[in-house]
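Example with several molecule types.
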Amino acid sequence: MLETIDLSLVNWSRAQFALTAMYHWIFVPLTLGLSFIIAFMETLYVKTGDPEWKKITKFWMILFGVNFAIGVATGIILEFEFGTNWSNYSWFVGDIFGAPLAIEGILAFFMESTFIAIMFFGWNKVSKKVHLTATWLTAIGANLSALWILVANAWMQYPVGMEFNPLTARNEMVNFWSVLFSPVAVDKFLHTTSSGFVLAAIFVIGISAWFMLKKREIAFARKSMMVAAIFGLLSSVYVAFTGDTSARHIATTQPMKFAAFEGLYNGSEGAGLIALGVMSTTDTDPSNENLMDFNMKIEIPNILSYMAYMDWNAFVPGVNDLVRGNAKYGIMSAAEKTERGKHAILKLKEFKEAKASGDVTKAEMLKAEFTSPDFRENYFRYFGYGYIADPNLLVPSVPLSFYSFHIMVGFGFYFIVFFILVLVYLVKGTLERRRGFLRLAIWTIPMVYIASQAGWIVAEVGRQPWVIQDLMPTVAAVTKISTSAVQVTFWMFAVIFTTLLIAEIKIMLRQIKTGPKTDGGHRNV
Amino acid sequence: MGKHTLYRIWRFYVEGFRDMSGWGKQVWIIILVKLFILFVVLKLFFFPNFLNTNFDTDEQRSEQVLENLTNIK
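Resulting structure tokens for the full complex:
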């Protein structure tokens, strides 16, 4: 089957998954962050009894509601794609992917649906405290449901807590807690959700800036900005912290991804961090179009070694070290990993044949081999490499990884400065007069969306060709269906998602232009 | 949970939808159209579960995946 897989099928299936995941991720981070901002605002209303805070809460709740409604269920398409386009993968991952997704579905349905209903329909029907509790539980529920999908994603990047069963061709979970609390899962959850908080804080500040520029609702805008800027500043510092720990884990668990997003071709001791760089379009290695040199770079010596291993002089492997191997530093070559992977696949094939021929003794012996620590550590660990025909296919797109990573980090530091400036200007009472800064605040909204998407590109493009790190590449995961069928659904999704996005923007703009309303009489938001 | 409580919950939702503002009704139309497209049109006609559709038992499915995973050069 793999011998006849068309690479264009793999690429179209990947493109379709990327399209749906990235569109889905337009809606999600705002939900994650805005739900907490609304909860803070409503808490201030309940604490102070000031009706202005109720007005503020209800306005942002409308924008939250529009975003939630348009975005809800867009992620379900990804699950459809697993079953149709990635059937080998979805079978191979077994209950490891299924369990977190099932919990996510139950949580999303019960927690979010129930408490969102109270949030929107419950004004004047339940007590202030019950309403506030529902708002907080909506925020917590939304973020908890994100936890499970992120745990599943983290497992794909760092598969732990499972054993492969050759009889069922599935990975079976043996330790739920290892899956849930793997360092990659913890980092991914904290980094991703807190980046959503940053996005939402900038969304609130940007829209409030628009009101200030229009000289409308100044008190509303100032109060909204104050809450968002404090929340945003704390979140953006936390994003930097979790990003740092995440990079350290990636250096160990996904060294190729680390080398790619740092643009490090040849490893070295005391490796420098390229703070800024422009990649050349000239290939340094004609056999691999991904490898390009830098036309210009600003490098800070030793920082990369410290960032990766907390040691200024540590050796950081580059792309070439990981492909060719480096005996001095104990790095196995891709060729050796491929041989080991092929050996594991061969054992699986022998098992399949023994089972088919009714040779129970041999089948049992081979099955036992898959559970032996030696086989797992030295062969099954490299299972996916057995499908890699060319070692260069192990290198993700270095330019795309490098630029995405640097855009994400660059914007991340800008956001910290931005939040500090918003707070300083608010405290000094000069923000309304700084019209240039207010315009910048509006333009920071698209910047944070770009940074957010760039983060996913780093995570997902950087791990190519792996669907499951070292165990399953995309070429082995894909279902052999017609490429044209994938192309048709790709364009259908493009149209559906673009329509949804336009609808969201139009409804939101109309609500923003209408502005916050004083709470006179009852009307559900 | 008594009948009275269930009735109150029912009324809560009914009144909530009845008193919904214009934008709320608009997004509900979008939600319903979207769910119809996703679960009826896309799921039924474009995204059948490959293994569930083509094989009857888990044993057949695992054999198919084993065949796919081991058929390499």
